[in-house]
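Tokens for Ger(X)C family spore germination protein. Go.
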Amino acid sequence: MVRRSIIPLPLILLLCCLLTGCLGSKEIQDQAYITSIGFDVEDEQIIVYFQALSFANIAKKEGGEPTAAPILIGRGKGSSIEEAFNHIEQTTAVPLHYGQINTLVISEKAMEKWLNTILDFMGRNSFLRYTTWTYGTNESIQDIFEAESFFGQPPLYTLLLRPITVMKENSFLPIVPFHDFIGDFYEPVGASYIPSIYINEEHWQEDKEKKLTAIDGLYVFSEEKFKGKFTKDDLEGLKWFNPETNKIYIPLKELKVSVQIVKPEAKIKLKGKNKPVYNVEIDVESTLDQNVEGLEVKTIEKQLEKKIKKQVMNTYEKALEKKIDIYNLTRNTYRFHHKRWDVGTINDLSKESLKVKVNVFIPHTGDYKK
């Protein structure tokens, strides 16, 4: 005789209730995904911008090309950041999803007047990931958020949202996640950076000129104060201290020579008694790409050493005019030698505080070998 199991009625009802747990969930295509937040200032009020993508922006057609759906830009204004946020949220037609925020853009005006308020707000709200990329700009944030990509690709394939993919092979400027900036900003020594982003309409076109985002310098901060913008030309020396620098092309026009440098290495040694002195030795290995006059390799190496040293000192002295330690020489001094020198002494840099030696080696000269 077969025994039959009887399931109690209360247990059946409980299981039915559990099955209804997903009825209230939202479909991904029914939400606007906030991917970027921007802050600007207008008439003494804070302006908040949202860049939002629908699922159509992110997904690709099955077996086809990426779908370039329109970008949604939200704009709110208020006497506080909370008021500006509410201004946007109260007028939205679909739910806003904050879990995918990838980029923070702050205008130059907002940096000057609202930066501490912005950082405090971001620190109190969990929707901002500490891996969020951070930029500054003196252009329209709406234009930055509407920038294009190549071949009709979705906005995810832009420098704004994927800076490492775009910049790692061709830029010496640091790419700054929010948590790195915050950590450096509140240090009593050294400098913190935010890359300066702008719209470049000059170099690429498809059917028409492309509006692409590009980096043209850094906004620099020291001792929790905004110190201004430095252009790429101002920052030529920074590439020799950035461990992420991957490839550098240097022309010596007067010699009709060009070289390519990969992975330079800077070693910093601390000296000094009454004040810190930094002895920096930069080792550079390069490949000779052009040598029209067939010059001796040793001659080229010496000229390169002079040029690199000049770049390092020019950037250092330009930053020193604004009392900035642009190379963050003082960071380790403060951490490991604060009993030897106080903060004021550590921050009191001069031209004599930095000594630079450059060693250039050209192991491979191609067809120009002498």
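The mean pLDDT is 83.
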